[in-house]
Amino acid sequence: MSATRWTLTALGVLGGALGVLGVVAPDRSLDAAGFEPVADRAPGDHTLTILRSSSLAALSEGGLSVLGATLGWRLFPAQAVAHRLLLAADMVGQAATGRGPRSLLRGAAWEGVGAAAIGAAVWFDRRR
After folding, report:
1. Domain that includes residue 28, residue range
2. Residues 109, 34 contacting (CB under 8 angstroms)
3. What confidence tens digit (pLDDT) does each residue in 19-55 have?
4. What are the phi and psi torsion angles at 45 (to 5°)?
């Protein structure tokens, strides 16, 4: 299997696992992301609902990444890099403007490193 497919598969499995964590243990997921724990949530606080939804999205994206790697979808690596860079830019923008906590920079780093890893794997495969 190519380096690109291995990279997509590894990132997909890791992302899917983080998605499962967010669904099964949302408080642990918040802690891992660097958010402050909240003992009692105020009425109308939908943080855990949104976390579960985004965790299901992470699980879905992880599955798509594994599927794209397994089936060898030719344009999938480029789409994955673009998607990850867009997410990273959004998270940095939210943290930089104060619309989101600085802990979003961890997520931005995850997405940026993932995009760089996929890009490096594609470059490596093309040179072989």
Report:
1. 3-33+47-127
2. no
3. 999 999 988 888 888 887 777 888 888 888 888 999 9
4. -80, 110
CA pseudo-torsion sign 60, 61, 62, 64: positive
User: What is the number of structural domains in the chain?
Assistant: 1
Ranges 7-16, 32-41, 84-93: which has the least confidence? 32-41
* Cβ 32 vs Cβ 10: under 8 Å: no
| Torsion angle of C-alpha atoms 25, 31, 33, 37, degrees rounded to 10 | 110
The yes-or-no verdict on residue 76 having pLDDT over 80 is yes
Residue 38 lies in a domain: no
Instruction: Give dist(CA 108, CA 40) in Å, integer.
Output: 28
Percent of the chain scoring above 90 in pLDDT: 74
